[in-house]
């Protein structure tokens, strides 16, 4: 909880700080990477730096945390902190690095806001920073402990035992630990970071969801190639994986993390609704495969939207898994339908005549516009917002409280 003096100062300066956060975070990253270039090698995602997405996520999270402290003193914005802590654990953040980030962030705040940052104002925001950092550090310590790894040290080599083309732009890599140790425990729906060396020698991390049952010794990721549209370049890691990684190669993977997962697999009654678009199908096939492996009798509804049946990664596997589950069914939407899926609907996902089972837990994954549209439809259909869990395949720019 903030002290009374700091609360008044943070309240008075929040509009000015929030208004300048874009400039502050731009300056923060520029100075930090200039003076600590090692952080860009093997930790930060330079695609998200270039697009500005990480900067906006950081700014949004600080403003969101400060607002939550003022509006609900004594509580913590759990969803916000949990998402960040899992991402931090997946990229290997350690507690000593919070001092580095503090130094550059507060340097940037002082530079941008100038004389407005009196010693008292700086001390009040310092308190906000360390409350947030403390909450993240303790969550990250627990995540590392649960994963049985030392902080920042969850990397292990895995061998690609099979590479399979799923669609013209999606490939799956089936992986086995190369060090002979058992595969780490994972929950269905979680992701790993993959660490690769780019042609310029810089290491880059990206997250990929485990797209098959995480219960066995083999794990699978399914990677969509990110192609640029002229104005934007092709995605660097997905392109490298598509073009250079094959059977017998090794990949360095983090332990599995992520707070959007099936946390009640033994529950036999609560319905599960899996809603995805495009490559957002990967957490859903992970969850479906796990339910099938457990012989679950839960009601399961799979809803997926894609460009066409040929673009729909893991389509045949989704059908096969639904067949194995006694109370599961699926509905697909395609913008360009094809004869392979005669029962599919045409166009974008429209839940108008789809009955969503009462009391269901809903998992949602796809682009932000897709998730906004579907979440609105689910709320209109009476689904409680509490029951909707969503995964964003990038820095979360759909922060709690801002979801439409
Ligand atoms: C939790 C999580 C789970 C995920 N699971 C999966 C999964 O199962 N399967 C999957 O395929 N992906 C998944 N992703 C996405 C994946 O991590 C990568 O983001 C994706 O593969 C693209 O990475 P890339 O290196 O190819 O692209 P990047 O090089 O990182 O580029 C990403 C985007 O930014 C744009 N960009 C890059 N540079 C610039 C610039 N200078 N200016 C403007 N725009 C720019 C690119 O055009 C591209 O559209 C997941 C992400 C998260 C966070
Ligand atoms: C209080 C301090 C911090 C805050 C508020 C914060 C906030 C965030 C947020 C909001 C994200 C995006 C999460 C998402 O994917 O949705 C993130 C990701 C990340 N953070 Fe932090 N962070 C803090 C400290 C740190 C520290 C100390 C480091 C280590 C140097 C760090 C490194 C990273 C990295 C590498 C990512 C992933 C970046 C990417 O994939 O683009 N963060 N952080």
UniProtKB/TrEMBL annotation:
State its Enzyme Commission number(s).
1.14.12.17
Question: Which residue windows are coiled coil?
Answer: none
GO terms in the biological process aspect are: cellular response to nitrosative stress; nitric oxide catabolic process
Q: Which parts of the sequence belong to the Globin domain?
A: 1-141
User: Which InterPro entries does the record associate with it?
Assistant: FAD-bd_FR_type, FNR_nucleotide-bd, Globin, Globin-like_sf, Globin/Proto, OxRdtase_FAD/NAD-bd, Riboflavin_synthase-like_b-brl
Instruction: Identify the domain of life.
Output: Bacteria
Q: What GO MF annotations does this protein's record show?
A: 2 iron, 2 sulfur cluster binding; FAD binding; heme binding; metal ion binding; nitric oxide dioxygenase NAD(P)H activity; oxygen binding; oxygen carrier activity
Q: Which SUPFAM superfamilies match?
A: Ferredoxin reductase-like, C-terminal NADP-linked domain (SSF52343), Globin-like (SSF46458), Riboflavin synthase domain-like (SSF63380)
Q: Does the keyword Heme apply?
A: yes
Flavoprotein as a keyword?
no
Q: Which reaction does it catalyse?
A: 2 nitric oxide + NADH + 2 O2 = 2 nitrate + NAD(+) + H(+); 2 nitric oxide + NADPH + 2 O2 = 2 nitrate + NADP(+) + H(+)
State the family it belongs to.
In the C-terminal section; belongs to the flavoprotein pyridine nucleotide cytochrome reductase family.
Which PANTHER family does the record cross-reference, listed alphabetically? Answer: FLAVOHEMOPROTEIN
Q: What is this protein called?
A: nitric oxide dioxygenase
Q: Which organism is it from?
A: Streptomyces adustus
Question: What broad taxonomic lineage does this protein's source fall under?
Answer: Bacteria, Bacillati, Actinomycetota, Actinomycetes, Kitasatosporales
């Amino acid at each position: 909880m903030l002290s009374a003096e700091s609360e008044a100062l943070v309240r008075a300066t929040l509009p000015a700080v929030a208004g300048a956060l874009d400039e502050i975070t731009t300056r923060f990253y520029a100075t930090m990477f200039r003076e600590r270039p090692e952080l860009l090698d093997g930790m930060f995602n330079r695609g998200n730096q270039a697009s500005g997405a990480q900067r906006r996520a950081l700014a949004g999270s600080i403003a969101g945390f400060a607002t939550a402290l003022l509006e609900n003193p004594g509580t913590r914005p759990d969803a916000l902190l949990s998402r960040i802590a899992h991402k931090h654990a997946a990229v290997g953040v350690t507690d000593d690095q919070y001092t580095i980030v503090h130094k550059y962030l507060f340097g940037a705040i002082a530079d941008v806001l100038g004389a407005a940052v009196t010693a008292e104002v700086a001390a009040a925001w310092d308190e906000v920073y360390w409350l947030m950092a403390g909450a993240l550090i303790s969550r990250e310590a627990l995540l590392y402990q649960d994963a049985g790894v030392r902080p920042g040290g969850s990397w292990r080599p895995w061998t690609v035992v099979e590479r399979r083309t799923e669609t013209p732009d999606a490939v799956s890599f089936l992986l086995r630990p190369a060090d002979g140790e058992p595969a780490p425990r994972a929950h269905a729906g979680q992701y790993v970071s993959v660490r690769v060396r780019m042609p310029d020698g810089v290491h880059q991390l990206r997250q990929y969801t485990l797209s098959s049952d995480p219960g066995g010794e083999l794990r699978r990721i399914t990677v969509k190639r990110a192609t640029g549209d002229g104005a934007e370049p092709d995605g660097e890691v997905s392109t490298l994986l598509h073009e250079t990684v094959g059977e017998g190669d090794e990949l360095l993977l983090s332990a599995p993390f992520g707070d959007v997962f099936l946390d009640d697999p033994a529950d036999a009654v609560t319905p599960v609704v899996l809603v995805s678009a495009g490559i957002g199908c990967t957490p859903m096939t992970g969850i479906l495969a796990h339910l099938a492996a457990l012989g679950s009798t839960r009601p399961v509804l799979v809803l997926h939207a894609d460009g066409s049946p040929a673009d729909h990664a893991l389509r045949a596997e989704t059908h096969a898994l639904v067949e194995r589950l006694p109370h599961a069914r699926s509905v697909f939407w395609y913008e360009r339908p094809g004869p392979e899926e005669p029962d599919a609907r045409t166009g974008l996902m429209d839940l108008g005549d789809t009955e969503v089972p009462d009391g269901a837990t809903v998992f949602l994954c796809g682009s932000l516009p897709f998730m906004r549209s579907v979440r609105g439809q689910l709320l209109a259909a009476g689904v409680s917002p509490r029951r909707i869990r969503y995964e964003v395949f990038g820095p979360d720019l759909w922060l709690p409280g801002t979801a439409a």
